[in-house]
Write a structure and sequence with these properties.
Elements (H helix, E strand, L loop, with lengths): L2 H24 L9 H7 L6 H14 L5 H9 L6 H12 L4 H8 L4 H34 L11 H16 L11 H29 L3 H8 L5 H4 L5 H20 L1 H9 L6 H18 L1 H11 L10 H8 L3 H40 L8 H29 L6 H12 L3 H9 L5 H25 L7 H5 L20 H23 L4 H11 L1 H4 L11 E2 L2 H12 L1 H15 L10 H25 L3 E2 L4 H76 L6 H33 L7 E4 H11 L1 H6 L3 E6 L5 E4 L1 H18 L6 E8 L3 E8 L33 H11 L4 E5 L5 E8 L10
Parallel strand pairs: 4-6
Antiparallel strand pairs: 1-2, 3-5, 6-7, 7-9, 8-9
Helix pairs in contact: 1-8, 1-9, 2-9, 2-14, 3-15, 3-17, 4-12, 6-7, 7-17, 7-18, 7-19, 7-21, 8-17, 8-18, 9-14, 9-15, 9-17, 10-15, 12-13, 12-23, 13-17, 15-16, 16-17, 17-18, 17-28, 18-26, 21-23, 24-29, 26-27, 26-28, 29-30, 30-34, 31-33, 33-34
């Protein structure tokens, strides 16, 4: 493919990334940019060009040795729910924006330690950024069939560097507060992670199933190559130990690499996102490694004896078969893997360089008397310059130093360098005795051992036969040979350096921390870090400080960085949180810590401490006094928690009593309504009976026979009505108290409904109502108490008659059946029922006002009894309606697998 064509494709691709980042920044609160999946995929910045190209090279040359780098993170990831959550909480409450801030704050807010961590990170990461640039250059030349140019201006990587520097400096420095979330960068990185995985899977499928005939075919052909069996086994004890150390090394890397700390900690929006990450990220790594073996050994088969760079097999194979589209896609995947690492690493390193070196050791004094606008501009410019400087420095390392090593080898060197932070980092989380002196000693000694056993030999050249230093050791002292220190000769160079450097680092950290106690500030932060769960809500309470400080002086410092409005808003929040009178002029320990946190995101923990210390007078505190204050703080927190729990419990009990009281009031009201209704319903037929009886008694001789029959008929009718009402009340009482029994038998619901319709047929005809009965089949069997279901259907049909219009009335009854239950629907075309009546219509004595009569007819007990009957059958009953379209009463009966006449 032509260089111009590929450059145009790259330009379009980078433009799309700019657009995605811009779109995400504009929608920073959208679910599309703050969801757990974006967070989880952004963690795949771990998979750089090393994963995309280097793993294939390792697999091709040494078989399974590429696996430990991915097994380590997969093994350690389940602990994220504890360890990563703790780190996120500590970082959030302290406004931490980098791993340098994290470590330096834990050990007494040490400026020197923050600078040391920054230098270690820069020293470890810059060469690896240079290798990412080299991968872009080399793969560009492969795709375009060109040679690398010695002229900077004709080298495509030059312009890629400039574009990346612009992108990272613009979107990485949009906020003065470095702890702010960069949704644009994170979303763009997440999209790149998805694309590089998709492109890698495509080339894997292509090689496995189109170039070859599946995994078996590749394995069978690769097995014929030299040393195949030897390369593709873990080996004996020696190889197992090497694997173990690589797994541990990668476990540390997933926490300590600046880019991983930034994406996993600084850019974490919610702790709950970790739950998604602990399954997506391992799955991502597993998917990425499925096709490493087929591509690597497929390349060995196709290019046997040609001496090609195995790292680039994923490009060479589709190019060999003239598949230009796939070649470009693979190149874009590798390009994504490289630039996402470069962008995130440069942003995180620039934050450390600015907040832990340039500001605290450079122009922190000049920030004290400048305006907010000037300070913010100066801080942002320092970070932009840092980003440009780091990327350009990496570019010059790539251009002018001979980097003959593979991606994996340089990547592992970076891992070993960064691993020197492990004892101080994990000690900060779990060990209160860890001190600044111990951390500094451990990191320096560990780095020196790393330099001696790894960096210096790599600089000289591992394969250099003329180097007596590597072959014989300094001054020909064999036990000091850098790759076989003290006679340890069974570890590979990376594992060997990792073992000795971390051993000395850890031992120094432990010994110095135990031998030399840290100051009160270190012990204070040790408590706050290790016991973060206790102090998460009121962490300012745990900060120990004694001295003289005035709020007005601290406010002036805050205004120079936050501005007037944000400072006032922050102070109001603080006063509300701790119920502090705004007229108080002196500042306490809580306010000092609060102010330092506000500044930390802007200028780092060390510089924040320097600026606040410049306007306050602190008294020295002895270590026993610190412990006493912390103990009191713990007790206060425990007491406050107990008071809060007691208050919540009392509130809960109060609410329960209030609800119970309301229920009693409602029951009392229902009782009164019940008595009123029953009295009214009983009085009506009794009054009618009494009136007719008195007339017959007083004027028996004068009453005509026809009239006498009418009065007697009325007495019988009202007596029947009275009897029915009493039966209903008794029925309802039995159902509610559980005294009523249901006798189940196997019946045909269609037949039951037809018989019920026949019993009211005359009434239906008298009202000129049309009734339609639709059944799924002539015989729909179910187990139910037929007498009670007849009562339900009779009630629903009677209600439907009442609700039907005076003309063109229509009632439709439908029966449907499924595997779970049968459903009976009784619909009328009347006025319908209001939504607010759907539930109360089944209450005792409730009567709808939408009947077609002025005064409601009936006792109001029918539907209440229907509900009890259906529920005793383990069914449901409800109403559906829209005003003007009639009402539909539906009840269901389960398809019971019971014997006939089963009593319940």
């Amino acid at each position: 493919m032509s260089s111009i064509g590929l450059i145009l494709i790259l330009g379009l691709y980078v433009s799309i990334l700019f657009y995605i980042a811009h779109w995400a920044e504009k929608r920073s609160n959208s679910k599309w940019t703050t969801n757990p999946y974006i967070y989880s995929f952004s963690l795949a910045v771990y998979c750089t060009a090393w994963t995309y190209y280097g793993s294939i090279g390792v697999a091709a040359q040494s078989g399974l040795s590429y696996l430990p780098i991915y097994l380590g993170p997969i093994i350690i990831i389940p602990t994220w729910m504890i360890i990563l959550k703790r780190i996120v909480r500590i970082s959030r409450v302290n406004k931490i924006s980098s791993i340098a801030d994290f470590i330096s704050l834990r050990y007494g807010n040490s400026r020197f330690l923050g600078a040391l961590v920054t230098l270690v990170c820069i020293f470890g990461i810059l060469p690896y950024i240079a290798l990412q640039l080299k991968s872009i250059s080399d793969t560009f030349n492969i795709v375009t069939n060109t040679q690398s140019s010695s002229n900077i201006f004709s080298d495509t990587t030059t312009y890629v560097c400039i574009a990346l520097a612009l992108f990272a400096s613009y979107y990485g420095t949009k906020y003065v507060d470095a702890s702010e979330k960069r949704h644009g960068i994170v979303t763009a990185v997440a999209m790149e992670s998805i694309l590089k995985l998709v492109f890698f899977l495509i080339i894997g499928i292509y090689v496995t199933y189109f170039v070859f005939d599946g995994f078996d075919d590749i394995y069978a052909k690769a097995a014929l190559l030299d040393n195949f069996d030897k390369k593709n086994t873990i080996g004996g004890l020696t190889e197992g130990i090497n694997w173990f150390f690589l797994c541990v090394l990668s476990m540390f890397a997933i926490f300590l690499l600046p880019r991983q700390f930034h994406t996993a900690i600084v850019e974490n929006n919610k702790e709950t996102h970790i739950r998604t990450a602990i399954w997506i990220f391992p799955l991502y790594l597993l998917l990425f490694n499925i096709f490493v073996f087929p591509i690597a050994w497929g390349g060995n088969i196709l290019f046997e004896g040609q001496g090609l760079n195995a790292d680039t097999y994923s490009l060479l194979i589709p190019q060999f078969f003239n598949n230009n589209v796939l070649t470009v896609l693979v190149f874009l995947g590798g390009f994504s893997a490289a630039i996402s690492m470069i962008i995130v690493s440069s942003i995180s390193l620039s934050t450390m360089l600015s907040n832990n070196l340039l500001i605290p050791y450079g122009f922190v004094g000049s920030l004290e008397n400048s305006s907010q606008k000037k300070n913010n501009k100066r801080i942002l410019n320092s970070r932009k310059i840092a980003i440009f400087s780091l990327i350009i420095l990496a570019y010059f390392i790539y251009r002018f130093f001979v980097l003959d090593y593979s991606l994996v080898s340089i990547g592992l060197v970076s891992f070993v360098v960064i691993a020197q932070l492990a004892p101080a980092f994990f000690g900060a989380l779990f060990w209160k005795r860890g001190s600044k002196k111990g951390a500094v000693t451990g990191i320096i000694l560990g780095f020196l051992v790393c330099f001696y056993t790894l960096l210096l030999p790599y600089a000289i050249g591992i394969t250099s036969s003329s180097s007596t230093f590597i072959q014989e050791g300094p001054w020909a002292i064999e036990i000091l040979k850098p790759f076989q220190l003290f006679g340890l000769d069974y570890l590979e160079p990376i594992q060997h350096a990792f073992f000795w450097s971390l051993l000395l680092n850890s031992m120094s950290y432990l010994a110095v921390s135990v031998g030399f106690k840290g100051n009160y500030r270190e012990r204070n932060y040790a408590e706050m870090f290790v016991d973060i769960d206790k102090y998460i809500t009121n962490h300012e309470n745990a900060f120990v400080w004694k001295g003289t400080a005035y709020i007005s002086d601290i406010q002036k410092v805050l205004r120079r960085f936050l501005g007037e409005e944000r400072t006032e808003r922050a102070l109001n929040i603080f006063n509300l949180k701790y119920s502090i009178d705004k007229n108080i002029t002196t500042a306490d320990a809580r306010f000092i810590k609060f102010a330092e946190n506000l500044l930390t995101g802007h200028i780092g923990t060390a510089s924040a401490k320097i600026l606040i210390s410049s306007v306050i007078k602190e008294d020295k505190i002895s270590l026993p006094e610190v412990l006493r204050i912390l103990e009191e703080s713990k007790e206060n927190i425990i007491i406050n928690k107990k008071l809060t729990d007691t208050s919540n419990e009392l509130k809960k009990i109060t609410d329960q009593l209030k609800n119970a009281n309301q229920e009693l009031i409602n029951k009392d009201i229902q009782k009164d309504e019940f008595l009123d209704t029953v009295t009214h319903e009983l009085r009506t037929p009794i009054t009618a009976i009494r009136a007719a009886t008195e007339i017959l008694h007083d004027d028996d001789d004068e009453i005509p026979n026809e009239l006498r029959k009418q009065f007697l008929k009325s007495i019988i009718s009202e007596s029947d009505r009275l009897n029915r009402l009493i039966d209903k009340i008794l029925d309802l009482e039995k159902f509610e108290t559980g005294k009523h029994k249901i006798y189940l038998s196997k019946n045909n619901i269609s037949k039951t409904i037809k018989n019920t319709i026949d019993s009211v047929r005359q009434l239906i005809n008298n009202k000129n109502i049309t009734i339609i009965f639709n059944a799924a089949s002539e015989e729909t069997k179910a187990f139910y108490d037929e007498e009670r279901i007849i009562q339900v259907v009779h009630n629903l049909v009677s209600n439907a008659i009442k609700f039907c219009p005076t003309t063109d009335g229509e009632i439709t009854i439908t029966v449907t059946e499924n595997t779970k239950d049968i459903a009976v629907r009784v619909h009328n075309n009347g006025k319908g029922i209001k939504v607010e009546e759907f539930e109360p219509i089944f209450d005792k004595f409730y009567q709808s006002r939408n009947q077609n009569v002025k005064k409601p007819i009936g006792s109001g007990l029918g539907l209440a009894i229907c509900k009890q009957i259906i529920e005793h059958h383990k069914g449901s009953i409800w109403v559906e309606s829209t005003e003007g379209n009639g009402a539909t009463f539906i009840f269901t009966l389960p398809n019971y697998n019971t014997t006939e006449n089963q009593q319940r």
